[in-house]
Each structure stands twice: as C-alpha cells, then as structure tokens.
Here is the input.
Amino acid sequence: MAKTMDFGLFDTWNAVYAGGSMPWDPKFEGGELLESEAYTKNFEQVDFIESAGWDYIWLGGGHFSTQASMDPQVLMLAAVIAARTKNIKIGSSIHRPLMKLAGEELSERALPHERYAFDNLMLDDPFQTAEQVSIVDQVSQGRFIYGAGARSRGSDERRDYFFEFLEVMKQLWTEDHFSGFEGKYYNYPAFYENYLSIPKPYQKPYPEMLLPVDSQESFVPMGTLGYKIAIGAGSSTHNIRGTTILREDVKSYRKAWKDAGHPGEPTTVVRIPTLLADTKEEAERLSDELMVLARKYFSGRIGIGSTDAGSASPETTEEVNLFGTAEEVVDKIEDLRETYSTDEIMFEVNWTSSVPREVVMNTMRILTDKVIPKFK
Here is the structure.
C-alpha cells in the first residue's frame, strides 16, 4: 500500500480590489485595494481548510508588494493563524531574513519592491528571529514549521551565510545558557549572566525546518544538513532543464540525507499551481482565462511578476500543473509522487492572485471531497 500524503494550502494572503479584478486584468477599472475585505476573504480560506481536515497552511509573502500579496510579515501572520486554529500545521514558505554580504549588490533580476527592501530595511538578526519563531511555536503548541530562504541562487557564499544564520538560531534554541558563537559571518559572545536567555520553542529541540531549493547546487548540501526541502514542480527556478534533471537532483538530495545518517526519510514538498472544476470543459475554460492573466502578471508591464523560489512561470505551468477535474488531478499527483518521491503537495489555488474567489473556494471544495481522500 502506498504511503499516505499530506496536503497544504499555499497562500500569500492575496489582495482584494473593488470590482473583483486585479490591476493586470483588462477588466480592471481602478478599484481601490480593500485591505479589511482581504483579511476576511483569506480567513475564510483558513477556516475552511481547518474544518475540512487539511494538514497544513503555508504562508508566503514579501515586503512592499500589495498588488498581489498582503503578507509582509510571515511570522506575525503565522502567530495570528496559530491562535485562530487548533489542528492544521502552519509553515512559513518562506520567511526571508534580510541578509547582505560585504559589498553585495542586488541582482538585476530583482523587482522594484525587492530592491527597495534590500536598500532600506535593517538586516535581520538570528536572535530576534529565533525569539519570534519560538513564540509562534508556543502559541501553536508545536504546529509550526520554519520555512526560510535567502535568495542564495548562484552564490555558494550567500548559501553558507544563510546556513550560518540557521546554526546560530539552533544553538540559541538548544542551549540553556548561550555559550557564544564564532563563525565566518556571525560572532556573538556568551550570555553575560545566567538569567539571560530567549524563549524556547514548544517542539524540542526546535521546529522542523523547510528550505526551498533555489539552485541545483543546493540539493546535496541540504540533504547533508538534514533539511526538509520544497521544490516547484512547474518552476522556472527549479525545473529550467526539465523533469529528468530535477528527478536526479531529488535523488542526490535523498542520498546525501541518508549518507549523513539522519533519522527517518527525507521529505520533498512540491508547490504547484492548482485549479479544479466539476467538468473538463469548465476546467479548461477557467485555466485558459488564468493563463492569460498570469502572462500579464509576469510581463512586468502591468503585474509584478515573481522571483520567488518555487514560483511557477507561465511557460512551465503550461506543462506542469494541477489544472483539471478531480480525476485528472488525482492522476497528476500520482505522477508527482512517482517522479519526485514527494509525500506532500502545496496547492497554490490562487496562482498569481488572478483566480476569482468563487473559483478558489470551489477548487478547495473539490480537493477536499474528491482528491485528498484518495491519498489518505
């Protein structure tokens, strides 16, 4: 019998505009951003998956980009949802600590909101991030997964910098009295007095961590270090050279995990655009409409596009997606399980924030009633 799978909602706390259309939709007539209504609509989704017995909600977002996402503070939102729910696990996917190497300049691929954050926000430090994660984990009573990334694609040094950030946090969580840290990028003295400490997480020694793989070079290091990984099945970031290469990358990750002697089985989470309908004809119509808007979103002229690890481009989404009827999507998930040894799917039911709300909720209903039970 095949192993059961887990399923989660990937959500960036999508924006809502008066009139129901987004700024990159030709039907958009300049409607104002409805922030309070956005919270109401997004909480409806949280309440639905909590009551329907889904396994996770994964929260992604970023600073200064309210066109599509209303989530600049992933850890704060995770704490709010933790207090609102009792059953679902809550993951950040991802929290991006702002980090800068000496003399580092932002990539030319960066979007305007990313550049503004890079140029003007204070750097994150592992002490305060560790405190925040501990609070979320305590409020959720151990239902939190810390997913994080630092846009390290193409830079071994930046990846090592990020790994060191995580090592500082793990030491803070596991030591009763912080003994100090001496690394290449971070240096902290031991706590001066015995009473000095930070809040500890509910989970021991600390919450599970999820890291998005943003380059081929990251698969083996993440397996060696024992991190759970997320990939985008239809992502230009991960899948630029096709399924065959990505499959081999996942095998390399799993081998590195086992060679390092980590307990249990390595976990691969797949984030993928998802849209379901009750009939094949309706699914095709809605998917075609979504692809038109997604291309405008990624064009850079009207929408904002995305450079997130795991964010699927229109070109690759045409080839790899969970669009269709329940029966078609069940078959596609079986293929994902076989191809990538995945045991968890992040359903991105409002990919590019371009899906009508009623379609989002119907997709979630069909997933709940006709898809998820096939894998439990």
User: Anything to note?
Assistant: The domain at 6-375 is CATH 3.20.20.30 (TIM Barrel). The longest helix spans residues 156-174. The mean pLDDT is 91.
